[in-house]
Each structure stands twice: as C-alpha cells, then as structure tokens.
Amino acid sequence: GAVVSQHPSWVICKSGTSVKIECRSLDFQATTMFWYRQFPKQSLMLMATSNEGSKATYEQGVEKDKFLINHASLTLSTLTVTSAHPEDSSFYICSAPIARDTEAFFGQGTRLTVV
Amino acid sequence: QKEVEQNSGPLSVPEGAIASLNCTYSDRVSQSFFWYRQYSGKSPELIMSIYSNGDKEDGRFTAQLNKASQYVSLLIRDSQPSDSATYLCAAYSGYSTLTFGKGTMLLVSP
C-alpha cells in the first residue's frame, strides 16, 4: 500500500505551549488528508479534513483556532495544537486517500502528552 | 450525521474458527467501504476495500457488501491469535469524508 509518514511519533510538552505534527505522503500526492484523535479505549474521531491549497473543514465541536491545520503542498499537512492543555493529551493520527473516495492510508500516529 | 455502526464486542472465537464482523451505514450515497485492523496503541492498517455488491476475497479475508441493506461484513477464516485486534469499518459520505465505526474487538483464543 501507499506510505504515509507522521512525525513525531510521541511528544511531551508543557501546558500552554504549542506542538506541531507533520504528516507526509511519501509515494503519492495527497490532495486530501484527514486528521483524527483517539482517546484510550475509544474510537477514532475525525477532527478535520484538510485539502491542499484551501482551508481545512473542521468537524463540529473542534476548535479551529486551537487545532491549526495547514496543507500547503500535495505531500505535507501539519496539525498544530496551540496552547496545549492536559486534556489535549491523546493519540493523533493522520490519513490520506490515494484518490478521492478510495483507500486511505494512515500515518504511525503521534502520542501527545501535555504535562 | 452520517453514521457507521458496529457492535463493540468483544467477539471471541477459538483458533481456526471463522470470525464474522458486521457493520451498517446510514448514508445511502456511500459507495466506498473499508475494513481496517487496529492493534492496541497502533494506528489502523487497511485490510480490505469493497466498492460493489457481493463478495471480495483476499487470502483469509472476505468482505461482503449489500447496498440495498446498507450492510458490510468481514469474514476471517482460520482465525489466528495474531488476528486479535479491533476491526474498524469505514465509509465515505457524500462529502468525501471518511467516517469510522467505533470498532469491534476480536479475541482469538489458542
């Protein structure tokens, strides 16, 4: 399958700081990338859909000013968690379909811990 | 809100048996359906995709789609302990948003 690389795989940050997570499609061009959050023993929750060259579409209840998404190129999307707080500690995962409405491949995920 | 529904399980089967996982979806315009496997602490990995009514087989896995009933299933033959994981059903909505069910935990006992 296609390869999506996510970095970092884990990060610990202090409360009030910002953290940037990168998601790269290594062998295909991703016009769309999905960002998910998963709390322990819970399901994947879609946070937002990013589209290259345009503003991201956020799901209801997700603060766009807190979770900044940038999709500046066809191979890179970033999620920045601004002013992180302990309740933002979670597993963040990106995925990208190889074409519209087709198989989506996941990055390795980023485990964020805010202390 | 377009939804994908799955039983949370756990579904327990003995090694060598057939595991049957089920999923229903609410968005009638959905055309693309997927099964992912997720091990604890890891990100999901794609197992099967299915786009047309009927069965699709890949090794020990068979996906079944019935668009009239809005139903997708995954059969795992000759289940192995290494198949123990959470299985996620996913479908695209009419807005090209990939929505996941809550997942079914499968436990295969030796």
Tell me what the structure shows.
The complex is a heterodimer of chains A (115) and B (110). Chain A is built from no helices and 11 strands. Chain A has strands at 4-7, 10-13, 19-25, 32-38, 45-51, 57-58, 67-73, 76-81, 90-97, 104-106, 110-114. With 110 residues, chain B is an all-beta fold. Chain B has strands at 4-5, 11-14, 19-25, 33-38, 45-50, 54-58, 61-66, 71-76, 85-92, 98-100, 104-109. In chain B, strands 2, 4, 5, 9, 10 and 11 form a 6-stranded mixed β-sheet that branches. In chain B, strands 1-3-8-7-6 form a 5-stranded antiparallel β-sheet, with no helix packed on it. In chain B, strand 7 (61-66) and strand 8 form a beta hairpin. The radius of gyration of chain B is 13 Å and the shape is globular. The relative contact order of chain B is 0.35. The interface between A and B is medium-sized, with 24 and 22 residues.
Question: Can you tag this structure with a few keywords?
Answer:
heterodimer; A: 115 residues; mainly beta; seven-stranded mixed beta sheet; four-stranded antiparallel beta sheet; 0% helix; 52% strand; globular; B: 110 residues; six-stranded mixed beta sheet; five-stranded antiparallel beta sheet; 11 strands
Percent of residues in beta strands of chain A:
over 45%
How many β strands of chain A by DSSP? 11
- Kindly, what is the distance between the CA atoms of the first and last residues of chain A, rounded to a whole number of angstroms? 36 Å
SSE sequence of chain A, one letter per element: EEEEEEEEEEE
What is the terminal-to-terminal distance of chain B? 40 Å
What's the assembly state of these chains? heterodimer
Largest sheet of chain A: 7 strands, mixed
- Secondary-structure-derived class of chain A: mainly beta
Q: From the alpha-carbon coordinates, what is the Rg of chain B to the nearest angstrom?
A: 13 Å
Q: Which series of helices and strands of chain B comes N to C?
A: EEEEEEEEEEE
| Largest interface, counted by CB within 8 Å of the partner chain's CB | A-B, 24 and 22 residues
Overall average pLDDT of chain B:
93
Helix amount of chain A: under 10%
